[in-house]
Amino acid sequence: MKNLRIRPECDTAQVARGPAFTFTFEGQAISAYAGETIGAALMAAGILTFRTTRHQGRPRGLFCGIGLCFDCLLIVDGIPNQQACMVAAKPAMRVQVQDGTGEASYGN
Amino acid sequence: METEVAIVGAGPAGLSAAVAASEVGCQVTIVDAYARPGGQYYKQMPGEFHPRRPGTLYHDFAQAQQLFARIHDHPRVQVLSGTTVWTAQAASTNGSPVTLYLNTGAGSVELRAEKVILAPGAYDRVLPFPGWDLPGVMTMGAAQTLVKSQRVLPGQRVVLSGSGPFLLPVAAGLAQAGARVVGVYEATTPQQWSRHTLKVWNQWDKLWEGGDYIRQMRKQGVPLHFGRAVIQASGDERVQRVTVARLSADWQPIVGSEEQIEVDAACIGYGFLPSLELSYLLGCAHRYDPIQTTFVVQHDADMQSSHAGVFVAGEITGIGGSAVAMPQGALAGLAVARQLGHLSKNAAQEKMAPYHKALRHRQAFAVLLQRLFQLRPGWLSWMTAETLVCRCEEVPFQQIEAAIKDDHAHDVKAVKAMTRCGMGLCQGRVCGHAVTTITAKLTGQNAEHLGTMTQRPIARPITLSSILNSASMQHPQTEQHPS
Fold first, then answer.
1. CATH no. for residue B293?
2. How do residues A46-75 score in pLDDT, each as one tens digit?
3. CATH class for the domain made up of A18-100
4. B197 and B258, same structural domain?
5. What integer is the mean pLDDT of B207-236?
């Protein structure tokens, strides 16, 4: 799998990440480190599409990255409209692509 | 909850205000949307990450550390992290001059305050172009947050396009972190700047900082181009290539100059837009700034808005960066302390004088930068009929055009009502500027008179269940911040 995390030889701040764990995205195991947002962990794995739009079904992903644009929404443990750029990844989280409003998956 | 001074935003302006007010005796509560204080400029890494060489993280690391240290464990400073203000009320029925309604994530909480200082900051302005909604196209701020705070690259082959000094630190940071930055495209040109250059020389420290980034970019082999911009992104389900064109002086793409570049990420930013939701909600007066092509909040020399008791600092007064935000925050903090009787008139004046002086100097530079990187109207021609202007509601340019030309929509509110532009979850933050500019152009009016999408009763989306949870949720998580 792709890994876009900054490599140690390029990291001037020499950052030690938090403990590693996995969560699932559409059933696929994704590795993450404590402190990472869901969006960052997915981007690091080369996954860019977090939702599809409700009219035209267009793919969307991280855009503003600071919690304002609401484009990076996905479904987390069955709850839609979670901002990938703001919500921290947690071990065993179940993350899914949000199609449209995500209402179809409510309660699943 | 009650507090003497509520501060919204824990960036350079909010933190400076908190330090100034608390050190002379005010009880301060800072409300901040993010997990840790710092705002965008001093964005911190997650608490679980531990930098062994933190000194490389910010250009002015010592100043950041000092701000954090001065609010950390301060007995009169409470920081509510991960908390947004979803609405606000001035002079309400409960007797408090200002009430902020907080979304803690677990419910809504009232925060009643004697005075409020708004320091909510700004966000990237992106101009719409074909393909700008493809995954992999993101704001420069998003790219910087990914790299600086999350330590993840937005892609392996990255292009940057936009205008303004922010291009440089983002490009240098990406290259240093190991991304291949295939090109940095600044839409303005040094020739266009030349008539302003003389005024720049007394700001040598800021010039030095800019020069530093350019040296880092050279070292990493990052090409910097002027008078060009990314005008299209394309790819299958994600950005795979961008079209870059040379621009005329008013930013019309020059026919025949287009070139295609293979990329897996495109970072775009044309300066910043102030977050004005709360200043509108609290009834503050705003003025239109034709250079920045946005409204900004009005204030007096003490940083008080037109609404007594509501103070403002930082980017919502006009984009000026941390060098303007910090003295403004300090002035607001001191003025609030004076009004609350913690400082005598003379003591306040004495403490404020150096900040007034610093502010005059820095503001002159900020205004100069605003002029140098002013948008030129030719960007409107980057859009095709199908280009989405409103990303949330998927409204293409042609629909706005039809609303104005065929259905006689004459201002922003009418365009919004007819097309649903700005009715999505971002509440017009992303498309508001473009919709206003398009409406001004197609109706032949001045943007100043067209209204804004920012005036709404709810500043940030909140779920109904969170509002209903308000009774059971009296004590939000209070996080004292970082090491």
1. 3.50.50.60
2. 999 999 999 999 999 999 999 999 999 999
3. alpha beta
4. yes
5. 93
pLDDT band at B324 (very low <50, low <70, confident <90, very high): very high
Nearest-by-Cβ selection for B178 from A10, A55, A66: A10
The residue-averaged pLDDT of B48-55 equals 92
Confidence of residue B477 (pLDDT cuts 50, 70, 90): very low
Q: Is B121 on the interface with A (CB under 8 A)?
A: no
pLDDT grade for B473, boundaries at 50, 70 and 90: very low
Complete DSSP assignment for A69-80: S--SEEEETTEE
Number of domains in chain B: 3
Q: Measured between CB atoms, which of A5, A49, A81 is closest to B152? A: A5
Q: What is the CA radius of gyration of chain B?
A: 22
> The domain containing residue B207 runs over which residues?
126-270
Amino acid at B382: W
Same domain? For B110 and B165 the reply is no
Share of chain B above pLDDT 90, in %: 83
Confidence class for position B388, pLDDT limits 50, 70, 90: very high
Counting residues of chain B whose pLDDT is more than 70, the rounded percentage is 95
Q: Do A65 and B147 touch (CB under 8 A)?
A: no
User: Which residues in chain B are closer than 8 Å to A60, comparing Cβ atoms?
Assistant: 133, 135, 391
- Which residue(s) pair with A31 in the sheet? A22
Ranking B300-309, B362-371, B464-473 by mean pLDDT, the lowest is: B464-473
Q: Measure A39 CA to nearest chain B CA, in Å.
A: 9
The answer on B388 and B359 residing in a single domain is no
Which structure tokens are listed for B208?
């030095």
Mean pLDDT across the stretch B193-218? Answer: 78
Query: Are residue B265 and residue B321 in the same domain, yes or no?
Result: no
ipTM exceeding 0.90, yes/no: yes
Is the distance from CB of A73 to CB of A96 less than 8 angstroms?
A: no
The tens digit of pLDDT for each residue in A3-35 reads: 999 999 999 999 999 999 999 999 999 999 999
Structure tokens at A21: 């764990």
Residues in B 226-245 with any Cβ partner in A closer than 8 A: 237-238
Report DSSP letters for B207-221, one per residue. Answer: HHHHHHHHHHHHHTT
Does residue B389 sit within a domain? Answer: yes
Q: Are residues B243 and B147 in the same domain?
A: yes
Find the CB nearest A7 among B155, B178, B392: B178
For residue B35, give the chain A residue with the closest CA: A86
Q: Report whether B243 contacts B231 (CB < 8 A).
A: yes
Q: Are residues B8 and B30 in the same domain?
A: yes
Q: Are residues B104 and B130 in the same domain?
A: no
Give the chain A residue whose CA is nearest to the CA of B144: A65
Q: What is the C-alpha separation between B451 and B435, in angstroms, rounded?
A: 11
Q: What's the mean per-residue pLDDT of chain B?
A: 93
- B94 in reach of chain A (CB within 8 A): no
Same-domain pairing of B279 and B362 = yes
Task: Tell me whether residue B375 is in a domain.
Answer: no
- Cα atoms in the 13 Å half-sphere on the side-chain side of B397: 18
| Whether the Cβ atoms of residue B423 and residue B264 lie closer than 8 Å to each other | no
